[in-house]
């Protein structure tokens, strides 16, 4: 076991891990932050997406030790301390951008990265950016709409209902 | 309407708050004190005889608690099948045993051979590798038609063959159907495959068994769509635990789509092992494991023939289907190709004579069972494809041919044993045509051509039987369970309500939509109503969520219980108001005496029920809590018309969906936002089936699509934004809400529209392509164009 | 995963030392290796992560050559832009999250037959720089998952000559989003190079007939009638050898048109 230390959601944390301990496992099991989900084992589904040093990564495709010294942000950091949803989260609720909720943390973290890189993405840019996040419930329609709304754009640009 | 949303309001979902903040509680988020972990050693061959299992070395490895094999389950019940189909000779289907861990033979890649319980999952997996299994390879049967040839290797040695049943429906119509084909002016024939799919809810399955020795109580936490059904099946048929000693909890569940209906061996194992070891045992499926252990869907091979008279009226329909059961009968598998498929073959059309033959076949593959739509997509696909082919052969407009043959009078008794209560197929087709601008198609096709693309449009209709219930009907058809639903409505002294329902929500938004109904009935804010579900300890008996039945059946039970609450509350109000019970009216949460200004508020009545100081104790019990069981007298019949426009890249065969429109009739709608979301998701799954998804085995039974590296899941870039409409509403006539269900429609109705559109594009380009089997991958489309 | 030790050296020298032990293996971004480890298809005793070594990261331009550190992630290459076709290719790998972790050195060392970078390296006539030597791309790609790298040898940088014109066209395998076929076309003063990934059982290859035709006439029309044989092409559930061979022709034309 090796000691790993990192900042997670603004707090310094450390723990004893094996070389093979994934960052997703560390976050879920050691820290109890179960909002980060694991939906596959080939790095495809994106349910485990979180931010490391400000960049979105798949935490099931990275070892905990590789995040030693890093700044990590998980879905649990997105809402305000009083529980108020942030703009993206609120848009997901407003536009029904989630159903079972399992892929949702990864979607929200990905949307946050997208809007940081590209504050006014087109529908096509959103769809392309979501290529690493699979949702089985929504058909993506309302996720795209929510992200567009979160970016302050007119959602009627997303096809009529 | 209640200020925060009653029936018909697009109320935002309250459950979203926890999901968006990462505070949902899914089964894998739960950990029991002192829990051990299980890893299942699974077969890597499709068919083999187990000559020996040596666990000696493995048992001594670090952290190993105990290793179980099939021998540990001698005398324990196997996995039960909940539906018995009777074949065309009146004989029951062949029903093989299905042990929790393999006994004697392995029958598919993924069949569990041994279960290693250890302190950590890594230790369990390390030890599993040290188990020495002596397996003698046997020839595998994968192709259904070969599987039922004489002399084919048998999946189950104790059965007479690999044929589970040979079902004829309606057998009495067979001769008349044959005659109709002889008399037909035109017959269109189509052979097609309904591709095997893997449901792939994003949350893999998880089971945690827990045992309380002091009270001899077992608890199973599991990713289930119907915890009560698991309790009944596992308790009564597998482990022999009476229901009062067994609690099943399905907390937040990350999608189901059918594959989490069934009772699985891993659930029984964890429950059994927790008691045997007196220690909680947790199993978390990996996605790779899910591909070889979750029940698959579809997998039909069909020949369908449509007979038409000289005026293009449908006169008869005949189908012959091979339905893959996989290696064992999953919980509801036999019902899918029969009663959920044959009964839908009339579709939206008044075809007078129909004969359906289904041969269900065992193969060395993962068991196949219900997946979103279950039988109805298979029926819709073949019917709507053969109609499209007929239209092309006859040179008539596919929409006109459909319209000409629509059922227009209701109720309508089909020749395949069901009666449609309401519908308006003309209205949904009219709405669809309004949505899609067919007149502008040629111009769009011209623009596509300029970019080197072929454009096509495909249209189809669908009907489904859902609100899966009528116990009296399904019992006659072989179901070994009733299919009612129940609800308990508990009103608290201060006026808030808790509805405990047997329906389970795993994405459908019941926690929001169910309160909208109760709030509307009473005239209070929906925020005063809380939904409790997913725990057999906290809810009355329930049959769960599948077959688009939650609101139609579960919601109706809730309405009935709420009606009882209102009736009792009115009695209390009458007493408080010193009026006759019959004069009491309830509106906006106020009980008033008709024709007077005397009234008492909902909260005063509920308080009186629990603080019965001035209370007619001789007439009414204190308290305000009611339970209702609701068992409808028919299925519901949502229907609709769908259209898809595609572009095909003739150089690569790649199909792009340019637009997709859905006009549905779901009857009344409680929360239109949620309904639209359900349709969107169904459409993506149907488009996934049509273009991307296909579960493939090689001839030795190795799974070639064992991960997302090879099984193509629809992603955001694969689907368009959808145009959906549910304004055509013919309310269901036999449930109190007039609702029909919307969960499966999109998945049922969309595959034929996509395939019809691609065939249309190719034919417009002069290609002699009449059919391509799904998924219409680029390579398949290219091959079809260049055959 | 089997148990292993994970080391995170911060200098190349330490990494080279750490990789001297017999069962040690280098870990780039891990986007392919970690899933492989999960399936227990690899059994290293030590994994030596290269992503904490600053000297292996970054992109700089020297004249008409782009020098990319071996541990530079795809996202950084995608954003750099001075070799537009290369940035375009990097931006098409996997998805945003994969591009934030996966590295050019990791991709080239793994040499997956469906990976994108090998096509760029081979078509560009890149030089693979290691801690031991410099290897020309033409000598580097040996076969399926096989390269000229020795045990313990680390890709420290990739030198990409920036051509007159270039383009990459990728046709995705629908599930994995790797290249079912990808074609990278490069035009330089010395002629045209065409590298194809995804198609061949032998891994990335140069399509010499197309190169000759395009060297005399850099236009899609020049490829008319040219075909790669389907013998030796990959056949699987996503496409037959014939389909892949056909796509090579289609995508090469498109790449030429795109390169302009």
UniProtKB/TrEMBL annotation, chain A:
Q: Name one Pfam family in it.
A: Fer2
Q: Which domain of life is it from?
A: Bacteria
Cross-referenced CDD domains: fer2
UniProt xrefs under InterPro entries: 2Fe-2S-bd, 2Fe-2S_ferredoxin-type, 2Fe2S_fd_BS, Diverse_Oxidoreductases
Annotated keywords: 2Fe-2S, Iron, Iron-sulfur, Metal-binding, Oxidoreductase
Residue ranges of the 2Fe-2S ferredoxin-type domain?
2-78
Protein name as annotated: (2Fe-2S)-binding protein
Give the originating organism. Answer: Maritimibacter dapengensis
Tell me the classification of the organism that encodes this protein. Answer: Bacteria, Pseudomonadati, Pseudomonadota, Alphaproteobacteria, Rhodobacterales
TrEMBL record, chain B:
What Pfam families does the record tag this protein with? Ald_Xan_dh_C (PF01315), MoCoBD_1 (PF02738), MoCoBD_2 (PF20256)
SMART domains in the cross-refs: Ald_Xan_dh_C
Q: Which InterPro entries match?
A: Ald_Oxase/Xan_DH_a/b, Ald_Oxase/xanthine_DH-like, AldOxase/xan_DH_MoCoBD1, AldOxase/xan_DH_MoCoBD2
Highest taxon above the source species: Bacteria
Q: Where is the Aldehyde oxidase/xanthine dehydrogenase a/b hammerhead domain?
A: 21-139
Keywords (alphabetical) are: Molybdenum
- Protein name in UniProt: Xanthine dehydrogenase family protein molybdopterin-binding subunit
Q: Which organism is it from?
A: Maritimibacter dapengensis
TrEMBL record, chain C:
Domain FAD-binding PCMH-type: start-end pairs: 1-165
Sorted keywords for this record are: FAD, Flavoprotein, Oxidoreductase
Please give the name of this protein.
Xanthine dehydrogenase family protein subunit M
Species for this entry = Maritimibacter dapengensis
């Amino acid at each position: 076991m090796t000691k790993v230390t990192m900042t997670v959601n603004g707090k310094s944390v450390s723990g004893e891990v094996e070389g093979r301990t994934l960052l997703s496992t560390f976050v879920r099991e050691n820290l109890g932050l179960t909002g980060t989900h694991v939906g596959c084992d080939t790095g495809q589904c994106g349910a485990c997406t979180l931010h490391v040093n400000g960049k979105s990564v798949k935490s099931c495709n990275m070892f905990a030790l590789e995040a030693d010294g890093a700044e990590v942000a998980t879905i649990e950091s997105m809402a305000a301390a009083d529980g108020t949803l942030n703009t993206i989260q609120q848009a997901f609720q407003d536009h029904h951008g989630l159903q079972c909720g399992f892929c949702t943390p990864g979607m929200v973290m990905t949307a946050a990265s997208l809007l940081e890189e590209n504050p006014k993405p087109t529908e096509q840019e959103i769809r392309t950016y979501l290529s690493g996040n699979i949702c089985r419930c929504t058909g993506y329609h309302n996720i795209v709409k929510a992200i567009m709304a979160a970016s302050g754009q007119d959602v009627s640009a997303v096809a009529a209902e | 309407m209640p200020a925060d949303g009653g029936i018909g309001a697009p109320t935002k979902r309250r459950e979203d708050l926890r999901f968006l903040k990462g505070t949902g509680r899914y089964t894998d988020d739960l950990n029991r004190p002192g829990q051990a972990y299980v890893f299942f050693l699974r077969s890597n061959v499709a068919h083999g005889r187990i000559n020996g299992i040596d666990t000696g070395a493995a048992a001594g490895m670090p952290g190993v608690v105990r290793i179980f094999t099939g021998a540990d389950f001698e005398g324990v019940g196997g996995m039960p099948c909940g539906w018995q189909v009777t074949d065309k000779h009146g004989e029951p289907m062949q029903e093989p045993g299905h042990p929790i861990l393999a006994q004697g033979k392995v029958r598919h890649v993924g069949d569990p051979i041994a279960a290693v319980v250890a302190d950590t999952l890594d230790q369990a997996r390390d030890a599993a590798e040290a188990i020495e299994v002596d397996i003698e390879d046997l020839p595998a049967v994968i192709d259904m038609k070969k599987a039922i040839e004489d002399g084919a290797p048998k999946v189950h040695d104790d059965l007479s063959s690999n044929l589970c049943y040979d079902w004829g429906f309606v057998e009495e119509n067979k001769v008349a159907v044959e005659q109709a084909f002889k008399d037909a002016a035109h017959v269109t024939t189509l052979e097609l495959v309904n591709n095997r799919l893997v449901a792939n809810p994003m949350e893999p399955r998880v089971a945690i068994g827990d045992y309380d020795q002091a009270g001899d109580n077992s608890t199973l936490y599991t990713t289930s769509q119907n915890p009560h059904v698991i309790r009944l099946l596992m308790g009564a048929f597998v482990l022999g635990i009476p229901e009062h000693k067994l609690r099943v909890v399905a907390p937040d569940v990350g999608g189901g789509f059918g594959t989490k209906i069934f009772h699985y061996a891993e659930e029984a194992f964890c429950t059994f092992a927790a008691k045997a070891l007196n220690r909680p045992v947790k199993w978390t499926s990996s996605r790779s494991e899910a591909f070889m252990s979750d029940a698959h869907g579809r997998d039909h091979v069909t020949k369908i023939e449509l007979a038409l008279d000289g005026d293009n009226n449908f006169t008869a329909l005949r189908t012959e289907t091979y339905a893959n059961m996989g290696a064992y009968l999953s919980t509801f598998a036999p019902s899918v190709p029969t009663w959920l498929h044959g009964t839908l073959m009339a579709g939206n059309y008044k075809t007078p004579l129909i004969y359906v033959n289904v041969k269900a076949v065992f193969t060395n593959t993962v068991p196949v069972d219900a997946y979103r739509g279950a039988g109805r997509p298979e029926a819709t696909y073949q019917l709507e494809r053969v109609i499209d082919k007929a239209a092309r052969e006859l040179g008539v407009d596919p929409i006109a041919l459909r319209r000409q043959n629509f059922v227009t009078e209701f109720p309508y008794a089909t020749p395949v044993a069901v009666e449609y209560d309401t519908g308006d197929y003309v209205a949904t087709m009219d709405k669809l045509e309004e949505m899609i601008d067919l007149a502008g198609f040629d111009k769009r096709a011209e623009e596509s051509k300029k970019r080197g693309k072929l454009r096509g449009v495909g249209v189809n209709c669908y009907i489904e039987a859902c609100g899966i219930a009528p116990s009296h009907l399904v019992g006659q058809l072989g179901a070994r369970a009733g299919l009612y639903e129940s609800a308990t409505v508990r009103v608290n002294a201060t006026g808030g309500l808790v509805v405990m329902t047997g329906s389970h929500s795993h994405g459908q938004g019941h926690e929001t939509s169910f309160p909208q109904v109760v709030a509307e009935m009473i005239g209070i804010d929906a925020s005063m109503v809380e939904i409790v579900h997913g725990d057999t300890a906290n809810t009355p008996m329930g049959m769960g969520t599948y077959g688009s039945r939650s609101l139609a059946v579960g919601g109706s039970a809730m309405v009935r219980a709420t009606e009882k609450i209102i009736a009792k509350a009115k009695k209390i109000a009458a007493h408080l108001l010193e009026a006759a019970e019959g004069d009491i009216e309830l509106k906006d949460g106020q009980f008033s005496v008709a024709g007077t200004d005397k009234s008492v508020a909902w909260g005063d009545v509920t308080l009186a029920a629990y603080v019965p100081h001035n209370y007619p104790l001789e007439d009414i019990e204190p308290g305000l809590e009611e339970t209702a069981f609701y068992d409808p007298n028919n299925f519901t019949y949502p229907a609709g018309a769908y259209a898809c426009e595609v572009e095909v890249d003739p150089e690569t065969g790649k199909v792009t969906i340019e637009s997709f429109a859905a006009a549905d009739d779901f009857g009344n709608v409680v929360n239109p936002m949620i309904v639209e979301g359900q349709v969107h998701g169904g459409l993506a799954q149907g488009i996934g089936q049509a273009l991307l998804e296909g579960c493939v085995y090689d001839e030795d039974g190795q799974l070639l699509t064992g991960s997302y590296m090879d099984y193509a899941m629809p992603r955001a870039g694969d689907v368009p934004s959808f145009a959906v409409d549910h304004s055509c509403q013919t309310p269901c006539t036999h449930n109190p809400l007039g609702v029909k269900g919307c969960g499966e429609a999109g998945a049922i109705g969309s595959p034929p529209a996509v395939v019809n559109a691609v065939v249309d594009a190719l034919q417009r380009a002069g290609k002699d392509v009449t059919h391509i089997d799904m998924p219409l991958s680029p390579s398949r489309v290219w091959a079809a164009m260049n055959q | 995963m089997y148990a292993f030790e994970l080391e995170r050296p911060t200098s190349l020298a330490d990494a080279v030392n750490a990789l001297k032990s017999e069962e040690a293996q280098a870990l780039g971004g891990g986007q392919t290796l970690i899933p492989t480890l999960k399936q227990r298809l690899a059994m290293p005793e030590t994994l030596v992560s290269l992503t904490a070594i600053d000297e292996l990261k970054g992109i700089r331009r020297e004249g008409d050559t782009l020098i990319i550190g071996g541990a530079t992630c795809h996202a950084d290459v995608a954003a750099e832009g001075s070799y537009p076709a290369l940035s375009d290719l990097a931006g098409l790998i996997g998805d945003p999250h994969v591009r934030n972790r996966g590295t050019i050195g990791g991709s080239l060392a793994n040499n997956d037959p469906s990976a994108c970078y090998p096509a760029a390296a081979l078509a560009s006539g890149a030089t693979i720089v290691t801690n031991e030597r410099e290897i020309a791309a033409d000598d580097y790609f040996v076969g399926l998952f096989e390269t000229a790298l020795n045990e313990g040898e680390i890709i420290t940088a990739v030198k990409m000559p920036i051509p007159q014109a270039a383009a990459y066209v990728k046709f995705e395998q629908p599930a994995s989003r790797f290249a079912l076929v990808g074609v990278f076309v490069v035009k330089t003063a010395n002629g045209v190079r065409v590298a194809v990934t995804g198609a061949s059982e032998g891994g990335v290859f140069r399509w010499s007939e197309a190169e000759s035709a395009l060297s005399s006439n850099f236009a899609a029309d020049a490829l008319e009638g040219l075909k790669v044989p389907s013998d030796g092409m990959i056949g699987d559930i996503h496409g037959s050898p014939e389909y892949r061979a056909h796509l090579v022709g289609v995508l090469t034309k498109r790449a030429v048109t795109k390169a302009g």
